[in-house]
Structures are given as structure tokens and as C-alpha cells.
From TrEMBL:
Protein's recorded name: Flavin-containing monooxygenase
Cofactor: FAD
A Pfam family annotated for this UniProt entry: FMO-like
Keyword tags: FAD, Flavoprotein, Monooxygenase, NADP, Oxidoreductase
Domain of life per record: Eukaryota
Protein's organism: Oleoguttula mirabilis
SUPFAM superfamilies per the UniProt record, alphabetical: FAD/NAD(P)-binding domain
GO molecular function, one term: NADP binding
Entry-linked InterPro entries: FAD-binding_MO (IPR051820), FAD/NAD-bd_sf (IPR036188), Flavin_mOase-like (IPR020946)
Family matches, as PANTHER family: MONOOXYGENASE, PUTATIVE (AFU_ORTHOLOGUE AFUA_8G02570)-RELATED
Length: 493
């Protein structure tokens, strides 16, 4: 006879103990203290991305003053930080507010079913690899990020299986791998490749980035002159210092991205000039640093204190632009006829996108098909009751979008209690269904994003169904915006 499953009940279940889950938990405690909650985390510790990736140099690709929690300022005098420091910061933040006591580790959510009769979510969970548990809650908030933790995106590279050297992927990095005095080729041109090159080069014989197409790589000082000035002027008040530096990091990137979207040609020239000034004479900007797209149409890569370009200037690193014809047992042959002869190939080819950590969603035991649905305010899914999905920004710190989501949902929870509402369900009108055109949820044109189009919900062209735009607008909407239009509010009986 099978053992009876254990049953746990909460008002809210958060799935994921990364930056989004920790932040959402804080907002619940701050604004809805009457609600009980837990966090279900499939891994062994807090951290999400920063716990998963172990490759050399893993670091933030946006500033920590806005990537950090708004309720616990990042206090180090460096805008970019390594993964280990980010995890420590997250653990300290969670412990400071008792959030760590609410986390259940090694709990993987397999299925989540919403019952319209009981107004409850039922989650089937595997704990510690084999134990089956059941959780019930009124609300389900998915703080799972947007990519597959279990499986990296493997690009099709002809002949890679024949290579007699070592093949590594950043997502499954072997920390015991010895690359001392080895010739390393990194296949890819994104943030991971830009991070790996200067961090592998000191020990390796030589490191080459092999890219099919180039990216924008911009230098970012760990501490700029304006931050130094702010610290000097506010020596008497740490809270004011933190507030001003955070405002600076909210404003400057916002102005830069708006400039790039509004004046793409001018932005392209500005970026190109900055890149050219840092390249050694031996590496021409065209074709190696002359992208076919405009800034922020794909992610712009940032390197702290120009370490990427410093590595190129030292001669320990180089860039090769071309298409792989075939990987041979002892090298890489390009369609141009050039050949590379690495000891190690690192495939930094992007992330495999996965929605909601791979959990299966059902409503009244009927499958819920995420790609067919539109997303309300970039937060709630059409026809999915009492649920939200936390999604950040692609051109600003992830935490900004995550916090806008958390504050919006906490406001809705408070309003539901005030009005005696037990269920909220985003619904498009018949007119909207007839007239609304589909828009991408992510504005990036990156290959891994295009491949995932059929896995993610859709954004709409009008009203509450438009894709997110920028933090200032979204946080204003979270505080004061319309939370009734496009949503069915069901009162209790």
C-alpha cells in the first residue's frame, strides 16, 4: 500500500529562491503580513543563477546597485560583483528578514493544478529526489527565471563529437578542469564569452573567442567618478549615499537605452567609437566588433574596468569571426579556410529557455497551454487564476522588473482582501481577441530568444496586454495603475 502524501497549506506558494523569490517574499512580509507563505526551491541553496553557474569569473552583467534589493542596499564600492559575493549578499539578506526560514530546499514542483470550485492551487512536489508531497495554496507565484537549469542550449556544431580534446559548457562547468598552458577556444559572443576570456587568459596559453557574429562590448568602471563624488559629499549619511547612487544607476542606463531606441544610428556611432578606442591595432573593429544590429536589440555586454579589452591588448586573448565548417579531431575548420587548433573548446552558445521551471500547469485538470496565452501587464497569464509569473528586464537589472511585479501583486492581494475577492483571472474581451495582434514578450533578437518563441506567452499590441517597457512606468503602474481592467474579480460567496 502506497504511503499517503504529506499535505501542506499556505496562502501563497512561491516557486524559486533566486533573486525574484527572495524579493517577492520580502514584499509579502512587508505589505501582506497576514498571509502565510513558503518558498519551494528545487536546488540545495539560495541563489538561482549564481548558485548554478561555476565557470571562472561568473559575475553580474548589470550593476549591483539596482540588481541588489531596494530594501537592502548593496554596500560594496563596486558596481559589478562575482557570483560568490552575490550569493553571500542574497543569503545575508534572506537571513536578516527571516526569509530563509520559509524556504524548503530540494523541492521540485512537477504539476500545479488550479481548482475553480475550491479556489485553490494543488502542487505535486518531489522532495529530496523521491519523496512525494502535496502543497495547497490560494496563490501561486512563479519566481523560476526563464531558462532551463537542467539542460543548457547546445548549438549544432558539425563534428564536435569527433574532437579529441576537452569540450566544456559554462552551465555544466567542471571546476576540476585544468586549462593551464592550454589553447582555449570559446564559441560564442555573449556575456559569458566576454567574461570567460579575461578570466581564463592568465593561466591559459591563449584564449580565442570564435564568433559567428559580433556583439557590443562596453567597458564599465567598477566605481566611476560620480560615485566617488557622491560618497565624498554624503560621508555623514550612508542611507543618503546609497539612495543617490541607486538613483544614478536607475537614471543613467535608462537614458542610455532610451537614446539608443530613439536614435539608433547615433547610438551605433557612439558605441563604435568607444570600442575602437580600446582595441589594439592588431584587431580591426570590422568585422570583429561591428554588429549587424543596433545597440540593445540584443544584450549589450559590459566588462568591468575594460578587462576584456586589456586582455586583447596583452596578446593573451584574440577574436576570430567566422562560420564553423567542421570540428576535426584536432581542430576547428572555418568556411573561410582558416583553422584553429585548441586543446579545449568551450561552447558558450546561450541559454535554453523554459517557462515556470518546467512545471505542468492545469486548470480543473485540463492542460494550460502557455504559448497560446497573452500576458497581462507582463505579470499575470490570461485565463490562469490567482497566479503570477515574475519576469525582469533585458536592458536593465532583472531585479527592477521582479520588484515591480512583486509590488503590483501585493497591491492586488491587499485590494482583494478589502473587496472580499477570492479569485482574479485576466481575460481578454471578445473585441480584443478579434483585433489584438501578437507582439514578442522579449524584444531581443538573439538566437536563443527566437528559438523559444513557441515556449513563452505572448504580449499584445494594446491596452493592459502590452509588453513591459521600462522601470519608471512599471513601478508607477504597480503603485497607482489600473488593476481592474482586463481582470475578472470574483467575490466570495
Amino acid at each position: 500500500m502506497a504511503a499517503e502524501k504529506s499535505l501542506s497549506e499556505y496562502d501563497v506558494v512561491l516557486v524559486g529562491a533566486g533573486i525574484s523569490g527572495i524579493n517577492f517574499a520580502y514584499r509579502l512580509q512587508e505589505r501582506n503580513p497576514e498571509l502565510s507563505y513558503c518558498i519551494l526551491e528545487g536546488r540545495h541553496e539560495i541563489g538561482g543563477t549564481w548558485s548554478l553557474f561555476k565557470y571562472p569569473g561568473i559575475r553580474s552583467d548589470s550593476d549591483l546597485y539596482t540588481f541588489g534589493f531596494p530594501w537592502r542596499p548593496w554596500e560594496e564600492q563596486s558596481s559589478i560583483a562575482e557570483g560568490a559575493r552575490i550569493i553571500n549578499y542574497m543569503k545575508e539578506s534572506a537571513a536578516m528578514y527571516g526569509i530563509d526560514k520559509k524556504i524548503q530546499y530540494h523541492h521540485h514542483v512537477n504539476n500545479a493544478n488550479y481548482s475553480t470550485s475550491s479556489k485553490r492551487w494543488t502542487l505535486d512536489v518531489t522532495a529530496n529526489g523521491s519523496e512525494q508531497k502535496t502543497f495547497r495554496s490560494r496563490f501561486l507565484f512563479m519566481c523560476t527565471g526563464y531558462y532551463n537549469y537542467d539542460e543548457p542550449l547546445m548549438a549544432v556544431i558539425p563534428g564536435i563529437e569527433d574532437f579529441q580534446g576537452t569540450v566544456a559548457h559554462p552551465q555544466t562547468w567542471d571546476e576540476t578542469m585544468d586549462y593551464t598552458d592550454k589553447n582555449v577556444v570559446i564559441v560564442g559572443s555573449g556575456a559569458t564569452a566576454i567574461t570567460l576570456l579575461p578570466n581564463l587568459a592568465p593561466k591559459a596559453s591563449h584564449v580565442t573567442i570564435l564568433q559567428r557574429s559580433p556583439s557590443y562590448v562596453m567597458s564599465q568602471p567598477k566605481e566611476d567618478k560620480l560615485e566617488i563624488l557622491i560618497r565624498r559629499l554624503t560621508w555623514w549619511s550612508k542611507p543618503l549615499e546609497h539612495r543617490l547612487i541607486r538613483w544614478k544607476w536607475l537614471l543613467v542606463p535608462f537614458l542610455l537605452t532610451r537614446f539608443a531606441y530613439t536614435f539608433p544610428n547615433a547610438a551605433r556611432k557612439m558605441f563604435s567609437k568607444a570600442i575602437q578606442a580600446q582595441l589594439p591595432p592588431t584587431i580591426p573593429r570590422d568585422p570583429h566588433f561591428n554588429p549587424s544590429y543596433n545597440p540593445f536589440e540584443q544584450r549589450v555586454c559590459f566588462c568591468p574596468d575594460g578587462d576584456f579589452y586589456e586582455c586583447l591588448r596583452s596578446g593573451k586573448g584574440s577574436v576570430q569571426t567566422g562560420v564553423i565548417e567542421k570540428v576535426t579531431p584536432n581542430g576547428i575548420k572555418l568556411t573561410s579556410g582558416d583553422e584553429l587548433h585548441p586543446d579545449i573548446i568551450i561552447t558558450a552558445t546561450g541559454l535554453k529557455i523554459r517557462f515556470a521551471g518546467g512545471m505542468k500547469l492545469t486548470v480543473d485538470d485540463k492542460p494550460y497551454n502557455v504559448p497560446e496565452k497573452f500576458i497581462w501587464k507582463g505579470v499575470m497569464l490570461e485565463d490562469l487564476p490567482n497566479a503570477a509569473f515574475v519576469f525582469g528586464y533585458v536592458d536593465a537589472s532583472w531585479t527592477l522588473g521582479a520588484d515591480a511585479t512583486a509590488q503590483l501583486m501585493c497591491r492586488m492581494l491587499k485590494q482583494m482582501r478589502k473587496e472580499g475577492v477570492v479569485e482574479v483571472v485576466p481575460r481578454r474581451t471578445e473585441a480584443e481577441k478579434q483585433s489584438m495582434t501578437e507582439e514578442p514578450l522579449l524584444r531581443l533578437t538573439s538566437t536563443y530568444v527566437r528559438k523559444a518563441k513557441d515556449l513563452l506567452p505572448k504580449a499584445g499590441s494594446t491596452g493592459q496586454w502590452k509588453a513591459r517597457s521600462y522601470y519608471y512606468k512599471d513601478i508607477w503602474m504597480a503603485w497607482f495603475g489600473d488593476i481592474h481592467t482586463g481582470v475578472e474579480w470574483v467575490r466570495g460567496t
